[in-house]
Design a protein that fits this description.
Blueprint (H helix, E strand, L loop, with lengths): L1 E4 L2 E4 L7 E7 L3 E6 L10 E3 L13 E4 L11 E4 L20 E10 L3 E4 L2 E9 L2 E12 L6 E4 L2 E4 L4 E5 L1 H10 L3 H12 L8 E5 L8 E2 L5 E3 L10
Parallel strand pairs: 14-15, 15-17
Antiparallel strand pairs: 1-2, 1-5, 3-4, 6-7, 7-12, 8-11, 9-12, 10-11, 13-14, 16-17
Amino acid sequence: MAATNNAGVVPVTESPLTFDVKSPNPVCGDVLVVQLPMIYGASSMVSIQVFYSTASDSAGVTWLNANQTAGGVNPMVFTYSPYINGRAIAPQQDTPANRITWGGCITTQNYLQPYMSANTTGVYQAFYGYYKTCFYNSVPAANYLMAAVVGDLQYQQIGETTGIIAEPSVLASAAAEFDNIQAIVDTTENFVQTPFIWGTYRIVVMPPSFPMGGASQPMLSYISQTTIVGDKS
């Protein structure tokens, strides 16, 4: 844990801090209360590193068996942060009042592809048959826009700053359905007189078992497979 001021980062302590987990509301989840070793002024920034793991039944993470995907061969996992599920993914103050940046590294077997609502910063060999893909989003945004998906997925670039992510059996029809997505982004940029600041806008065509119409997240918008009808409607 360190305190930061205009002069730089000043280490305070690297020893464990006293904390408590309270459950004032079972619907909204537990509260992590951390005791700081001193009082900080309004001009200080405090950085705390939290080590944690989520439960297997985390409300923010959905695990799909292979038979719940379009290909039916490999499993899939995706996060869904709205409305307050972000707090079930990471210990954070999950409120739209916060604007945060985020990033992460996902280690997968070599036949599964990970994506985040963030830009890819690197891909590294982890160990035999596995690799680690790292991401970072530098644009502060609400917590519920944080997302990640891993599965038997492929990416097809559509335009300069747009693309489609889908399972191999769906990719061609999805790319044809949304081949005008770059024109939509360009038109929107011209209308609001503001460039798309996030990076590459990617549509993820979710598997048939995805129970919602979609979820709009920067660089990783979930779209139901029922939108692939062949006439661009």
